[in-house]
Predict the structure.
Amino acid sequence: MVPAVGDYATIYWALGKSVGDELDYIDEKGRRFRLLLVGMLKNSILQGSLIISEDEFIKRFPSEDGYRMFLIDVARPSWPCFHGLEARATTRIEAVAGELSARLRDFGLALTPATQRLAEFNAVENTYLSIFQLLGGLGLLLASVGLGLVVLRNVLERRGELAMLQAVGFDKAELKRMVFYEHGGLLIGGLACGIIAAMVAVSPALKSPGAHIPYFSLVLTIAAIAISGIVWIWIATAFALSGKMLDALRNE
């Protein structure tokens, strides 16, 4: 059993595993051995890779010579960076990178800052999130219009019933409030069901180490859905109850 460490996204989402699980692997001679996942790193530069000890790697892949990747730690000041010290640290990193690139250019050395590497990994995720947000906004718009049309049709079909209520003493303002409260309650109930279902669906992501939850954008989205639904309900109700209600009662 070979202990291995990997990035959370690779282990949990790509492999469907977690800490303590085992994974079958094949060495260069076609022999099967097992990896034991003993740790995960959140949002690291190890995405797409599993790390094992050098001795275990040489034992199973003896024909691999040398190293393909280096992690270079450039000393940075441990004290708070005031009065240009941060700029000096950045200059030192650039100087070290330039020196290594010049001396090892014959070996094809390519240096990438860890922050840039992480930004490239996150760019893919952010692209998908932007697409889903755009599709979600379009779905919100269509759902809001659809809600208004459903309310409009429902009220038009009940126009005779509402005309009867007006004939026995209810005025239009009371009828509008009655219809608005009825469909508004359905809207709130639908939002509650949707929020509960969404919480259940994303609960694994919420429990993940280092999970970042955009509470502000979530609250803003829910508020936008509620406000949009209320506006369309009120517009549909006002349009359906406009005109002479008693004509609908005569048609009955």
User: Anything to note?
Assistant: The beta strands are 2-7, 22-26, 32-41, 50-51. Residues 195 and 201 are 10 Å apart (CA to CA).
